[in-house]
Write a structure and sequence with these properties.
Elements lengths: L1 H15 L2 E2 L3 E4 L3 E3 L1 H4 L7 E4 L6 E5 H10 L5 E2 L4 E6 L6 H14 L3 E10 L11 E3 L9 E7 L5 E17 L14 E7 L16 E3 L14 E3 L8 E8 L2 E9 L8 E5 L5 E8 L2 E3 L1
Length: 288
């Protein structure tokens, strides 16, 4: 009985969950029906018609929601004032898709791209014979965006795109305190659907020792903003210092006066209380 109740609750939540209307829908023909939104072809009803001389039509979101409500679709809400319907352009965007695919694969070592959709922002009968694809430097952080193509004559055309892909990331198991070494004990590796990141996710943590640059909450995707190279010397720890002088190698111990990473120049204090500057070479090791 409990199992049946859980199953019923699951379907009820999905049935009545709010669905956000998109700001733009690309349609195959000028007769726009509700199935483009609901996916329900059996009970589809007409929404509007794109006029003969146009390739775009829009409707107020509130008006569209009222139409959907009257026909039994009561769980839609709007995120913009208008919903636009744009006639799909009869163009081959495979080259643009390929450039996007190459771009995302270059940014993520472990990405599984399932689909890429590219549509011009205005109706186009054809593409220029020659053009370059311009992708902005931080677009890889998002699943969708706007890119452009530019011709040798400096003509620019803009396109909306959407990429469906899964990315391998590292997520904090629990709260990670600042300066804590990142290890499998405090993170898990998992594949997630690419949506939007505030910074580039860390990849292949195992290859480079890292530590938390700041306090990291539980369940957070670890990014380059959250980590830094691991400190190999801690303040007040004992450092083995090697000094090269006139063909001689002298080794002595000194107290570190600050935290440090490999190649940092730091101050240490020897047994005579003298302050020296040394270059960090490894774990509790330095040289002059």
């Amino acid at each position: 009985m409990l199992f049946k109740l859980v199953i019923f609750s699951f379907f009820a939540l999905n049935l009545y969950a709010d669905i956000e209307l998109e700001g733009v829908y690309y349609v195959e023909n000028k007769e726009v029906n509700s199935s483009i939104i609901t996916g329900d072809t059996k009970n589809s009803f007409p929404i509007l018609t794109i006029s003969d001389n146009d390739y775009l039509a829009k409707i107020k979101s509130k008006e569209l929601i009222e139409m959907l409500n009257k026909n039994g679709y009561k769980n839609y809400q709007n995120k913009s004032s208008y919903v636009n319907f744009i006639l799909k352009s009869p163009i081959d965007t495979s080259l643009i898709k390929q450039r996007l695919k190459e771009y995302y694969k270059k940014q993520y070592k472990n990405i599984d791209i399932e689909d890429i959709i590219v549509e011009p922002r205005t109706y186009m009968q054809s593409l220029p014979e020659e053009y370059i694809v311009d992708i902005r430097s931080r677009d890889y952080l998002f699943r969708d965006g706007t890119i452009s193509i530019e011709t040798p004559q400096n003509m620019k055309y803009f396109f909306n795109y959407y990429i469906k892909a899964h990315v391998m990331v590292y997520e904090s198991r629990d709260i990670i305190k600042k300066d804590t070494k990142l290890t499998p004990l405090n993170y898990i590796k998992k594949s997630i659907l690419l949506d939007r990141f505030r910074a580039k996710p860390l990849q292949d943590i195992e290859e480079t020792p890292l530590q938390a640059k700041r306090h990291i909450p539980k369940g957070k995707v670890l990014t380059h903003n959250d980590a830094e190279s691991l400190d190999v010397i801690k303040r007040d720890s004992i450092v083995n210092v090697t000094m090269y002088k006139e063909g001689m190698v002298i080794t002595f111990s000194a107290k570190a006066l600050q935290d440090a990473k490999v190649n940092d120049i730091i101050k240490v204090q020897n047994s005579n209380k003298k302050i020296l500057k040394v270059k960090v070479t490894g774990l509790n090791r330095a040289e002059i």
